Amino acid sequence: MKTILIIVTVIMSLSFLSAEMIDYIVAKVGREAILKSDLERQINQMRQLGAMTPEITEADVLNDMIESRLILQTARERNYRLDEFRIRQMIDSQIQSQIERIGSEEALREELRKAGMTMSDLREFYEQMIREQRLKEMFIQNEITNRIHITEIEIDEFYREKSSEIPWRPEKVELGMIKQEIAASERTKKEVLADINRVYDKIIEGKDFAALAKEESDCPSATNGGDLGFFGPGTMIKEFEETAFALKVGEISKVVQTHFGYHIIKMEEKDEEDIRVRHILKMIEPTEEDITETITIMDEVQRKLAEGEDFQQLAKEYSDDDSAPEGGIIGEFSGSEYPEMFSEQLKNIEVGEFTEVIRQGENLYIFGKLRIIPERPFELAEIRDELREYLQQEKQVDQYESWIENLRSESYVEIFSNR
């Protein structure tokens, strides 16, 4: 055994002669040694990956390596298991990110060659880093996070004691919104209903259902004579299913309304659970006249606002949004918090002003900046979740440090001074 150790030492010494350095142990963790070459390799790899910032010292890197060894040793003792497939996925993802950053796999290999590394070295580095990180996360979750509980009393006490140190809620603007959906009018619905009733009369007169579906239905299934194929419960919308499943084979339903429009359904086949039906659909869609009427309403709202009428009263009268009963108020926002879809229009108006009518899809909007809400201290209810998370993280850090210290005391850890 002594002879083998002498040979290993000689080989290691010779391998570092070109670097004018003899390898030596910088730390011991249990039965494992961390060599100077291990530390230098870790630092070099971190530099190559841009992870070695000026604030990080050699002692910091060594300390992290010691912690990692402690965690790995404890993980082995407690039989922690990692998802190997997930580990490979993460390694591949990191390699791909480096390829995309450099430009190509060939370019990455060349960069690695200049640094004295190979693609295998890079994969090995990522594998070690990811395994250690995943084990740390599992340990923290199982040994620390899952055992931390922040009570409501702790949050209340922290808020009382630290309220003077908590940054104030910044100045915000109260936004109001008036919305009109471009929808089919009652007149249009009556016209569509009359049309589907006309089709129904033809069915009663004996006209072939499939032929009528091809001629009359607005559904894509029209090309198949309205055939929807077999389907089971929970596949179609409620109103359609309730009628369809109640039919007998060969039976034809009366007109059924859903949010798509008006349907006539014919039962073709039934088995134990599934059914096969045909249907004819007349869709309820807004006409050009309906669209023009909705735009006219919003233009009228815009005119009333320009004449000084109260925004909130107009919202209660004209808006079909859920915010209408509250006068169209949708919340308090800073400039960076404006609804993304409307942020440009909102940035271009001042407090007390209103946007032009904005069309998005099948909706028309008018927004207003109603008033400034001055900065003020946060109320506890507004930041309770944030305080809980902060206290959770604070406890987690404290317990992690305490846990690592316990591991250090339970294991043999020694750091040797530089030679």
Describe the structure in your own words.
With 419 residues, this protein is of the alpha+beta class. It has three domains: 2-148 and 398-415, Triger factor/SurA peptide-binding fold (Orthogonal Bundle), CATH 1.10.4030.10; 172-183 and 288-373, Chitinase A, domain 3, CATH 3.10.50; 186-283, Chitinase A, domain 3 (Roll), CATH 3.10.50.40. It has helices at 2-15, 36-48, 58-77, 84-102, 105-114, 119-144, 152-162, 186-204, 209-216, 238-246, 288-306, 311-318, 343-347, 380-410, and strands at 25-29, 32-35, 172-181, 227-231, 256-257, 261-270, 275-283, 329-333, 358-360, 363-373, 413-415. Residues 1-21 have low confidence and may be disordered.
Give a summary of the structure in a few sentences.
The protein has 419 residues and is an alpha+beta fold.
Structure keywords:
Triger factor/SurA peptide-binding fold; Chitinase A, domain 3; 3 domains; 4-stranded antiparallel β-sheet; alpha+beta; 419 residues
Numbering strands along the chain, what is their spatial order in the largest sheet? 8-3-10-9
Q: Within the CATH hierarchy, at the fold level, what is the topology of the largest domain?
A: Triger factor/SurA peptide-binding fold
DSSP strand tally: 11
- The CATH architecture term of the largest domain is Orthogonal Bundle
Spans of at least 5 consecutive residues whose pLDDT stays below 50 are 1-21
Number of helices: 14
Note the main sheet.
4 strands, antiparallel
